[in-house]
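Q: What residues go here?
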């Protein structure tokens, strides 16, 4: 597949074999059986890799399906407002808010406007932009929309958990604790230890549409999930 062909459509259930070995792409399977091909990103050691999803490059039908599924998973939490993590999570957060019947959502930001306040910001790192020094901000004008509300914190992918922890720290400084953290993809289990350190409640309060493992290169030169 050409790079721009990924994330554009779902394949019917059973299109790809579930033998657990992959070459150039990973096949994620949704709860309804439909399959989504994801490019494999090799990590620096050359022996491990991750399946990648960039939701703001996805086809509209894929985005719509992921947003609908995530909205249904968090609907029982009686969400009042959705807060989105930049940059990629904003696309999904807006769509999820619409699926929940909301007329708006609250985007967090990394671009400092002149009316932002330094005390309403935290340092931010991301697996997709590891060398950039950024800060995560809440627009002070948006605070009344979050205060005292049942908040869902949405990102496109939860990987190392660094971005989510930054957002939790920022919201905590504003006396806000989300009732749920949601994402389209839970990318490996690396996030779990970090979120558990932030509070044992987050293991049960973190949901994804689907999950993908940390992949290992096997003797045949193919990628597979580590043996249990």
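A:
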């Amino acid at each position: 597949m050409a790079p721009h062909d990924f994330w554009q459509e779902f394949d019917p259930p059973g299109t790809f074999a579930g033998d657990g070995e992959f070459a150039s792409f990973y096949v994620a399977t949704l709860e309804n059986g439909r399959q989504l091909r994801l490019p494999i990103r090799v990590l620096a050691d050359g022996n491990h890799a991750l399946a990648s999803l960039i939701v703001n490059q996805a086809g509209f039908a894929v985005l719509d399906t992921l947003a609908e599924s995530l909205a249904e998973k968090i609907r029982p939490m009686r969400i009042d407002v959705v807060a989105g993590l930049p940059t990629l999570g904003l696309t999904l957060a807006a769509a999820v808010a619409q699926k929940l019947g909301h007329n708006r959502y609250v985007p967090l930001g990394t671009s400092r406007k002149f009316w932002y306040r330094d005390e309403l910001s935290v340092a931010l790192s991301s697996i997709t932009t590891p060398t950039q020094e950024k800060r995560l901000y809440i627009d002070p004008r948006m605070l009344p929309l979050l205060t005292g509300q049942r908040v869902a914190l949405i990102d496109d992918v939860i990987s190392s958990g660094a971005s989510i922890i930054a957002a939790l720290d920022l919201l905590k400084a504003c006396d806000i604790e989300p009732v749920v953290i949601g994402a389209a993809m839970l990318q490996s289990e690396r996030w779990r230890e970090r979120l558990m350190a932030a509070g044992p409640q987050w293991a049960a309060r973190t949901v994804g549409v689907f999950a993908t493992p940390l992949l290992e290169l096997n003797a045949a030169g193919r990628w597979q999930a580590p043996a249990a």
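A: Context that may help when evaluating the design: The mean pLDDT is 93. Residues 25-224 form a domain with the Rossmann fold fold (CATH 3.40.50.2020).
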